[in-house]
Design a protein that fits this description.
Blueprint lengths: L3 H37 L3 H14 L4 H13 L3 H14 L4 H14 L2 H14 L3 H17 L3 H14 L4 H13 L3 H14 L4 H13 L3 H14 L4 H7 L1
Helix pairs in contact: 1-2, 1-3, 2-3, 3-4, 4-5, 5-6, 5-7, 6-7, 7-8, 7-9, 8-9, 9-10, 10-11, 11-12, 12-13
């Protein structure tokens, strides 16, 4: 039977254990927040150091793996990014955002089938509004690459329904409409992308290309000139204008 002093020692040990874990977690969160701050300032090496500190304190800190993976992705270190996202999914397999992040890395490496699986998983698990729009847009890009044009249009449309000012989704849908020779719809989407993002060089150039296809040469020339004014190094516009 335990004596009174034994209960006292056991209770103190338990309190110290709880406090120790709480302190470690607090320190891990502090390192995570420091890393976020460095990331905002594009100080990526410093951010990685802080996220690594957080993981040394708490090896199952999913957010630290995700944030470090994001920084690795921005630095072009895709292998390390994949490794961090893999670890985060291993710890928390029901977080749709992690799959979406990993899908983007797969997409960047050209592994579009793996990316498609991850976007499907992320959408099925659920995402926040902005993240869901990104997932639909990115999956639409894969469908377009696989020449599944109707599926691509459907995903770009869903992205736009979620996020009405999504210039890239309008532009991407315009590309697919252009490929399907739905020229009026393509022009409408490029125009909307330009309204949202007035310096969208690619949208001006592609709208100019569509105008040339339907013999609206003055409008085409105007768009080429605008693209060149925005970016004098955008060679595609010079070719089209010529």
């Amino acid at each position: 039977m335990l004596k009174k002093q034994d209960f006292y020692i056991l209770a103190c040990s338990l309190i110290l254990f709880i406090l120790g874990n709480a302190f470690a977690q607090q320190s891990a969160e502090e390192a995570l927040n420091n890393g976020k701050g460095y990331g905002i300032k594009s100080m990526y090496d410093e951010a990685i150091i802080e996220f690594t500190k957080a993981l040394e304190i708490n090896p199952k800190y999913t957010d630290a793996y995700v944030k470090r993976g994001s920084v690795y992705y921005k630095k072009g270190k895709l292998k390390q990014a994949l490794s961090d996202y893999d670890k985060a999914i291993e710890i928390n397999p029901n977080d749709g955002l992690i799959y979406s992040c990993r899908g983007l890395v797969y997409q960047s490496t050209g592994s579009i089938d793996q990316a498609l699986l991850d976007y499907n998983k992320s959408i099925a698990l659920g995402l926040g509004k902005a993240e869901l729009a990104d997932a639909y847009n990115n999956r639409g890009l894969i469908y377009a690459q696989k020449v599944l044009l109707d599926e691509a249009i459907s995903d770009f449309t869903k992205a736009i329904e979620i996020k009405s000012d999504f210039a890239q989704a309008y532009y991407s849908r315009g590309l697919v409409y252009q490929k399907k020779k739905f020229y009026d719809k393509a022009i409408a989407d490029y125009t909307k992308a330009i309204e949202i993002y007035p310096t969208y060089v690619e949208a001006y150039n592609n709208r100019g290309a569509v105008y040339s296809m339907i013999d609206k040469l003055e409008e085409s020339l105007s768009d080429c000139n605008k693209a060149i004014d925005i970016n004098p190094k955008f060679t595609n516009a010079y070719g089209l204008r010529a």
